[in-house]
Structures are given as structure tokens and as C-alpha cells.
Amino acid sequence: MKYIFLFLVIIMTGLFATPYNSNVLIQRGIDPQILNLSVTTFRQKVAYKVHATYSESYGDENIKQDFNILYDPFAVYGIDIKLEIPKKDLVHINIRDLRTKLDETMGLQSYLQTRALYDLDSLKVINQAESNTTISFKFQEESIPRELKYFKQLKGYIYITDNTLQKIVLKNETAFKDDGVEVQSYEKTLVFSKVSLNGGYLLKSIHTKTSGLKDKLNYTSELYTDAIRYWDEDEKEILYNTKSDSNNPTLNEEYQTIKVELDRLFPLLGQEARKAGYDLPKPYGISLINMFQNTTMHMTSFEIDGIDLDFNKILDGDSTYQNLTYAPLLRADVWVFPFLSVGLLLGATDTSTDVTLESASGLSIDRPLRPPLEIIAPNASVKIDTFKTNSLLYGVGVTVAGGIGDFFSTIDFQYITSYTSEADVSVEMVVITPLIGYNFTSVGVRAFIGAQYQDLKESLTFAIPTNDGSLSGKVGLYSDDWAGVIGGNYDFTRHWSTNLLLSYGVDRSNMTLAIAYRW
């Protein structure tokens, strides 16, 4: 599917800038932010349409394709990017794949809008002769997202004549691999035209040429793009020396428009968030969760056959009630607001329980008209046979999230009910998980640390068989509610992601692995 590759290439262009600071570019009346635009055009308050011609040669295969790209930053839902494909070529096009790539691209642009992608300290005048100046620069490696990681291999050259920006050229310093191609030579040239109205610049054309090897065969590709027109929020044309194909900047009857529908109900206030430059997750999600947890609960009180016993005197060791639980769960959620998600949880638990009774002085029960019943000998412990239970688990959850730059914070609240049909018993539990983290954009990983609170039940009932009947009782329990948390999240695509959470505390250890799909 050739459109996917060529679309990614064409969108990484430069557009519009105005001076604001002081360095080797500002001294010449050029805003350094224009260097960001050599990576992406989609961060400026100006709409445009460009025409592109793409050609590719690979082995005996030769491809040539024309198409248009329309960019509108004034849409009610934020950034809007559309493709215009010649109708005669639609038979060869997978429109679904195009929409998927378009969706991923728009999500990426939300991040690229707010970051300094160039390294300000790398600006260096490498040539100055009469009225001509050449300045080199590099990109900020930690700010380049993984989808565009090949930019880390590029070096930029700015060509200025009479303090007027002429072009920016990007070249690779070393070979690199991208989209299955071993790129040996890469060159991208962005040509600008100065706008007399405010002293800024508009992109005039882009030429990208790539050569290398693909599957050990010679590979070359070229992409030419020419600006057709620019317009403002009122659809008023910005004067520019290019041809205009129509009075309507989005109308062309010979082309089929490919777009992604972003004007959706949820999240509420999502349009405002997108227009402010925030990348939002897909509103609806479903997650398959596997949780393994080992919990130790300490016995604090003891009651047998309705008789309260002095627990500290009788069980003067650390008697414990230990659960090993596996829970497969399904969670469905929706982002109601950009900062608030609400979800439902449904699943089951498979629990193995071990009870250990310890006493330094021993434990025996006096019984009227019968000899004392010795439960624990002095300085000994008794382990009750492991018993297993299966429970239905269901609940609701709320997640509050926010962030600044690459730093983010979330707090998750869950109210869960566990129902055991064998005993006809329901147990409620509250789980609270506050986290803080950092987004490592260059590798696509979000790492986080925090804590987790689990409000576990404080008692249990039991029955112990004896030679002459059985004993029933109730045990008070205590477990440290808090445990530390560390983990990470990795997004495979805009739709698929995985999450790993590890928790460890005084009385609890937990591992939770989730696979999620969002749409």
C-alpha cells in the first residue's frame, strides 16, 4: 500500500513563521521555530492545500501517483487533515488503510504541535560569503517520536540570502532503516517564499529523494510537493504566487476525499482540548486483564462456638490467612471528559487459601464434661489444608488523568464486589491507585510509579471438623492496605496497547497485565 508511505513523507514539511527571539537566525529576522516545520507543517494557524507527485522504483516495479493534501487547523474538533485521491485510481487504493494511517498521523501531530523539535544549541554558521549564509542544525533526539525516529539521523542546513530564508535542506549523516528500506542517501529540500504582510514565510515547494536497498534490491523514491493555496479562518485567501484550482479550497470533482470523522460526542469538551494541542485517546475501550495477587492477612481475634478468646494470650505467634488469587477480567470504559474515564468491570477469581495458626503457649479449648481439645501444641503451628474458592467479580471504576508536557498523573478508583456462590457470600472492596509517570516519546513507552490501596475484608468464618463433630468460629483479620506500584504502558498503534503493573507491599504482591483496544 504505497499511499501510506508517501503520506507520511509528505506531511513532514514546513510552513509559516515569525521572528521572536535572539540567535543566529533571529539576528537575520528568521524565527527558529521554522526549523520545527521541517518535520511537520501541522502546527500553524494557516490552512493550505498542496499537490504532490510521488514516484518509486523497486526492482522491476515502478510507481507514480498524484494526490492532494488539505490541512485545516480551524475545524471545530481541532486539526483536520484530508487526502484527495484521483477517482480513476481508487480501484488500486485500500481506503480503510488510508483512514487508519490518517488517524495515526493526526494523533501524532497533536504532540508535534507543542514541542521544540530542533536543538537550539546546535545552530552554527558554517559558511558566510557576502550576502549568503549557511547555518547547520540538528534535531532534539528526545523530542523526536518513535514514528519519525529517522530524523535523528538527519542534519539540517539553512540557506539565507540577504537575510531572507531561501530553503532548508535535510541530509542523512549515516545510513538508516525506515519502513523496510535500508536508506543510504536521503535529501529533503524545503523552499520558502517570504510574505510581505508580516515578514513571515510560506512554503513554496518540497522535494524529497531517497535511495537505498529494499530486500537487497535497488530502491529509489521521489516526492515533489507544490503549494496550491493558503487561506485563513474566514476562508480568505492569503496572497501567494501560486495557481488556484477553485474558489472553493476543498472542492475538486475529479478527486475522492479521504478523511477521518473526529466530530464525536465523547469525550465532552474533547474538541476544545484538541484545538488546544492535546492528543486524546480513543473514547471507547475494552481491556482484557490478567491479575495475579498474593495477600497475607494477620489474625487479630478469635471466636469459637460463640466464645470470644483472648487472642494475644492464646495465639501469641503470627497466625496468618494467605490468599493466592488469579483473576481474569474484562473492563469496558469510555472517556466522558478528556480528564475523566468511567468503566465497568466483570470477571472471575480463582483463589487458593492457606491458614497457619501459631502459638508459643499452645492452644486448647476447655469443654464441659469433656477433656480439653488441643488445637495447637506449645511452640508449634498448625496448617489447615488448602481450600479453593471461585467467585464472580464485578464493579465500577473511575479514572482521573492529567499531565504537563511528558509528565502525567492518574488516580483510579474502583468499587468491586466479589460473590462466592458456594457460601452465598458477597464481599465489597475499594481499590485506589494514584500514579505519576513520564512519557518516553522516542521509544513510545510511558513509565509510572505510585501506590495502591486495597480495603480488604476484616474477618472470616470457618468450620473445623473434629472426631466428635465440628467447631465453627470467626477470625478477625488485618492486612496492610497500601503497597507500592511500578509499571509501564506501550502503545503498539493508536488502537492497541499493553499495560504492566507490579505492586509490592508489606502484606501484598501483585502483577497485572492488560491488553487494550480503543476505538
Question: What labels describe this entry?
Answer:
519 residues; mainly beta; Lipocalin; 2 domains; ten-stranded antiparallel β-barrel; 58% strand
Please write out the topology.
Elements lengths: L1 H10 L35 E12 L2 E15 L2 E9 L8 H18 L11 E6 L2 E7 L15 E8 L2 E9 L3 E3 L2 E14 L6 E14 L2 E15 L23 E4 L11 H6 L8 E21 L2 E3 L1 H4 L5 E18 L2 E20 L3 E5 L2 E7 L3 E25 L2 E14 L4 E16 L4 E10 L4 E8 L2 E10 L3 E10 L4 E9 L3 E11 L1
Antiparallel strand pairs: 1-2, 1-11, 2-3, 3-12, 4-5, 5-6, 6-7, 7-9, 8-9, 9-10, 10-11, 13-14, 13-15, 13-24, 13-27, 15-16, 16-19, 17-18, 19-20, 20-21, 21-22, 22-25, 23-24, 25-26, 26-27
Strand residue content: over 45%
Terminal Cα separation, in Å?
23 Å
Total of helices: 4
Largest sheet: 12 strands, antiparallel
Q: Would you tell me the structural class of the helices and strands?
A: mainly beta
Low-confidence stretches: 7-21, 242-250
Task: Bin the helical content.
Answer: under 10%
Number of strands: 27
CATH class of the largest domain: Mainly Beta
Average predicted confidence as pLDDT: 84
Number of domains: 2
At the fold tier of CATH, the topology name of the largest domain is: Lipocalin
Principal-axes geometry comes out as: elongated
Name given to the CATH architecture of the largest domain: Beta Barrel
**Rounded radius of gyration (Å):** 32 Å
